[in-house]
Amino acid sequence: MSLKSCVRNKLLNEFKNINNEWKILVLDQLGTKMTSNCLSMTDLTNHYITLVEDITKKRQCVPNLEAIYLMKPTADGVERIFSDFNGDKRLYKKLHILFTEACPDELFNAICNSSAGKYMETLKEINMSFLPYESQ
To answer: Name one Pfam family in it (predicted).
Structure first.
C-alpha cells in the first residue's frame, strides 16, 4: 500500500468515525494540501462532507451543520476556532477538531476552557503533519 493510500484511508476513517450527518470541512494550509493530494470530492461526499472551506477566509454561517477542522495546532488557528464559536454567534452546530500533530498543553487548555469547548464533540491528534508525495 502506498503512503498516499495510507493517508487517504486514515483521513476517511477519521471522517467516518465522526458521524453520518452532512458536515463542513474547514482546512488550514497543510490540511488543504493533504486533502487535495490524497482525496477526491467523491471521497468527501461519500463521507458526508458537503463543503470544504479555508480557515483563513471569511466563511458563511451554517448553524445546522457540524464542522470538522483539519489543521495544525497553532495559536492563530485556535483563535479562528474561538471566533467561529463565539457565544451565540457561532458559525456551525458542533465542532470536531483533528490536529495534524501534537497539541501543546496551553492550546488544549485554552480550547477546553473557551466558549467553543461546549460545542466540541471531538478533539484528536492524528499525527500526520506531512505531505505524501510519490513518484508517478
So the answer is: Sec1
